[in-house]
């Protein structure tokens, strides 16, 4: 049977919209020395929007947006939704073929031509040179934007810069974890330039960037191998293995069902600060018991 204090602790959590699924998670949460946050949708709002469109020489803004949005019609990625929103008044073409490249982007065939859309790694793997737009891409990433590259055949046709604002409480969450002696890491499939900028803004200690979906759990394991007790906070399908691997997995309630099933704790209000609250409740619970 659950000790009385544990029932009180889980009940207190529930009243704050913090669903602690098992008693061992409550105890493990007292010992965490590092908490890893997924970037997109966890530390950020997960509501990306297009903030700059940079066509290559000889390409118009509308041409670039039409091509990008046509390709992204078959994608469910949040970045695809932002591009479609920006192109909503343009006539789109249905892609004849579409294939996701996990953690990098997608390839589509449009009007008989091969279109690539995604990050720099995707362009490199398909031998598309970035050329003179490279400086602009780095500048946008340095400002915390995610840069989507668009190529037709082997030629880059332009860049689309996307911003996703941090959640209002993200910065305070990190400060309060520091006050409690907990280190904070950020895990993302996004590129290092963008990730470093967002991390600096929020006060993150460890930046794990350019991580493919299949490698997220490995990153948790690596920190555990250094003797750390690791909490992981995420929202997406590809966060699920990392949430399971962590000593305590926290799912953002507004995220996917898969993430919620894999987590030990569900944050119903989707507020990162509730990670701090959960740790406080767990510490208070076990102080009473010992
Ligand atoms: P996250 O950690 O934010 O969930 P993902 O693993 O989904 O990241 O994607 C990693 C990177 O791959 C994105 O930052 C983006 O640059 C690129 N990418 C993935 N899917 C797409 C897409 N459909 N369109 C454009 N870019 C994409
Ligand atoms: Mg995410």
UniProtKB/TrEMBL annotation:
Record family assignment: Belongs to the cation transport ATPase (P-type) (TC 3.A.3) family. Type IB subfamily.
Organism: Immundisolibacter cernigliae
Subcellular location: Cell membrane; Endomembrane system
Protein name per Swiss-Prot or TrEMBL: ATPase P
């Amino acid at each position: 049977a659950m000790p009385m204090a544990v029932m009180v602790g889980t009940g207190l959590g529930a009243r704050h919209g913090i669903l602690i699924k098992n008693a061992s998670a409550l105890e493990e949460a007292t010992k965490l020395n590092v908490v890893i946050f997924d970037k997109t949708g966890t530390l950020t709002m997960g509501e990306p929007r297009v903030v700059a469109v940079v066509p290559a020489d000889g390409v118009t803004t509308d041409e670039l947006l039409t091509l990008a949005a046509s390709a992204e019609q078959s994608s469910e990625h949040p970045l695809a939704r932002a591009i479609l929103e920006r192109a909503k008044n343009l006539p789109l073409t249905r892609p004849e073929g579409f294939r996701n490249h996990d953690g990098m982007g997608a390839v589509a065939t449009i009007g008989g031509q091969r279109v690539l859309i995604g990050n720099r790694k995707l362009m490199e793997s398909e031998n598309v040179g970035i050329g003179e737009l490279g400086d602009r891409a780095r500048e946008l990433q340095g400002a915390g934007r995610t840069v989507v590259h668009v190529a037709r055949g082997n030629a880059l046709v332009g860049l689309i810069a996307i911003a996703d604002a941090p959640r209002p409480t993200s910065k305070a969450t990190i400060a309060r974890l520091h006050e409690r002696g907990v280190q904070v890491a950020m895990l993302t499939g996004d590129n290092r330039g963008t990730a470093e900028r967002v991390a600096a803004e929020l006060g993150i200690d460890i930046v794990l960037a350019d991580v493919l979906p299949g490698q997220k759990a490995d990153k948790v394991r690596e920190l555990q191998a250094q003797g750390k007790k690791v909490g992981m906070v995420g929202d997406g399908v590809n966060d699920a293995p990392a949430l399971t691997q962590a000593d305590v997995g926290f799912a953002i309630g507004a995220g996917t069902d898969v993430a919620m099933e894999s987590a030990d704790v569900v944050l119903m209000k989707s507020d990162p600060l509730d990670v701090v609250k959960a740790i406080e409740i767990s510490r208070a619970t076990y102080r009473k018991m010992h």
